[in-house]
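Design job #97: recover the sequence.
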């Protein structure tokens, strides 16, 4: 396989580990835990894994442990650093006993169910150290929720003498991992299940999990591109760039990229929902910034938009719900539109025709609007242009407006991991090996104190049930890990709020440039600004 100079250099990078994970460890159990909400319901669903203690690792001296075979699954969307979790897991189980084996299930959770796997040897692992992507074994979105799936997993684990499964995924994947752990305990089949926190969206975090892996790298990739566009905007001085960023359920990526680059406008979905802002109010606020800069001869700027914005605008949420209901009983769009409430009809008629068409014609297999396909950046450009024309007629705008739309999504999911993610992910993998060796199941691999140098990181595990609550999914109440939305009272949002008026008026752009893989630690190993602001606030 041909390799670039970067691939060759990164292969030699040795991820940094917490001091405690550089040798054998023992688990120190803390106090009993409870779920973040709905305690009685969660306890009934998880009688064997509920209430387990948070675990902290301490040095154990020399230990003699038997070999163990472990299976690993990549679940859900890609995130930078997944390969390092696997390489850390491999090195971890080999350090525990050189005869241990690691099996990768191919194509995600379906590989476990369908018995498709490969033994991951040192030769394979070494090809993927410090690389982006999930291509070592592939990923998938099959949900593990049926007893026949669980039982099929037992069959292959028994055949391969697998003692434990490590599931690398987001909130839903880790919820499924806990369901699997509970079932295997109930069946007393001797298979442990450990989860690892993955998602570039940054919404898998809480009082215990400080950050999900991949968020750091993805935000640095997006911020580089935003910085490049800012430099272009400041050079050409004639374009307004509207940039949509990944993050359907939460706006963490948009917020972090704003803190790194200082755009003129950054919309936060959670703020829009909290203030019950209408689409017109959002458009007017952007138009006011455009007009204010134009008055000073600055006919250019940058606007950051979270992917899920549409679903956070109350009136749009109502419109989408009404359309879903109406189009579920008739395929006649004109007939369905007649059934809209007066308020929703007014919103619908205010939309550009291209967006209105997406709302009525583009449906998912369940007949619902494909919200993620709505080109929000183009919607806002069109509506801001209309609003500015009205302002010009009123003598409130004197400039020229030319809007360009961008969507940064897949560009960030498989980048070579930053030093932070390379270190963090490798530590999560080694840590998972020691959770298994200490007999733990139903836990998520836990690395804390992550704004300190890596050798000072704290290792251990947190019960997945501790992070759960009950939510309605597909019409039924289900146990799920609670997503973390942007905290409007938190330090990261406050930093944005404190600076946004200056950034709107002045050109305060910051150009982060490409990810720094090599160089001084204070340049290359910095965590996200979000993580620093959140954790410093707790000190």
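Job complete. Output follows.
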């Amino acid at each position: 396989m041909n390799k670039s100079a970067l691939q060759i250099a990164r292969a030699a990078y040795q991820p940094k580990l917490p001091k405690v994970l550089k040798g054998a460890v023992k688990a120190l159990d803390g106090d009993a835990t409870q779920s973040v909400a709905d305690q009685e319901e969660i306890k009934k669903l998880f009688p064997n894994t509920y209430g387990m203690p948070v675990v902290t690792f301490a040095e154990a001296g020399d230990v003699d442990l038997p070999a163990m075979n472990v299976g690993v699954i990549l679940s859900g969307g890609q995130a930078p650093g997944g390969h390092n979790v696997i390489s850390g897991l491999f090195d971890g189980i080999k350090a525990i006993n050189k005869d241990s084996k690691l099996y990768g299930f191919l194509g995600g959770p379906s590989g476990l169910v369908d018995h498709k796997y490969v033994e991951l040897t040192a030769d394979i692992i070494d090809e993927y150290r410090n690389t982006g992507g999930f291509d070592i074994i592939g990923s998938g979105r099959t949900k593990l929720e049926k007893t026949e799936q669980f039982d099929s997993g037992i069959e292959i684990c028994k055949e391969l003498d697998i003692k434990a499964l490590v599931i690398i995924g987001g909130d839903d994947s880790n919820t499924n991992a806990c369901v699997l752990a509970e079932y295997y305990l109930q069946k007393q089949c001797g298979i442990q299940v450990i989860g690892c926190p993955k998602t570039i969206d940054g919404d898998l975090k809480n009082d215990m999990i400080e950050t999900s892996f991949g968020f750091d790298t993805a935000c640095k990739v997006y911020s580089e591109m935003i910085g490049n566009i800012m430099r272009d905007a400041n050079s050409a001085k004639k374009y307004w760039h509207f940039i949509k960023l990944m993050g359907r359920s939460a706006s963490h990526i948009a917020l972090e990229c704003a803190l790194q680059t200082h755009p003129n406008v950054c919309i936060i979905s959670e703020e829009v929902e909290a203030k019950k802002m209408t689409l017109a109010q959002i458009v007017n606020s952007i138009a006011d910034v455009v007009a204010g800069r134009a008055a000073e001869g600055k006919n250019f700027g940058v606007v950051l938009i979270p992917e899920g914005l549409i679903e956070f605008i109350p009136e749009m949420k109502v419109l989408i719900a009404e359309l879903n209901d109406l189009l579920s009983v008739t395929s006649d769009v004109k007939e369905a539109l007649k059934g809209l409430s007066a308020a929703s009809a007014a919103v619908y008629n205010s939309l550009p025709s291209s967006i209105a068409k997406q709302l009525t014609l583009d449906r998912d297999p369940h007949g619902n609007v494909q919200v993620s396909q709505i080109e929000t950046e183009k919607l806002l450009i069109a509506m801001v242009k209309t609003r500015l024309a009205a302002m010009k007629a009123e003598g409130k705008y004197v400039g020229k407006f030319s809007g360009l739309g961008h969507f940064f999504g897949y560009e960030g999911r498989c980048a070579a991991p930053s030093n932070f993610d390379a270190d963090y992910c490798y530590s999560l993998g080694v840590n998972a090996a020691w959770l298994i060796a200490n007999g733990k199941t139903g836990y998520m691999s836990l690395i804390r104190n992550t704004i300190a140098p890596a050798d000072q990181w704290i290792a251990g595990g947190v019960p997945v049930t501790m992070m759960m609550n009950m939510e309605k999914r597909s019409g039924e109440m289900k146990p799920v890990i609670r997503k973390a939305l942007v905290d409007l009272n938190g330090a990261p949002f406050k930093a944005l709020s404190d600076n946004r008026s200056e950034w709107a008026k002045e050109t305060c752009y910051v150009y982060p440039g490409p990810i720094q893989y090599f160089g001084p630690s204070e340049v290359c190993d910095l965590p996200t600004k979000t993580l620093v602001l959140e954790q410093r606030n707790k000190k």
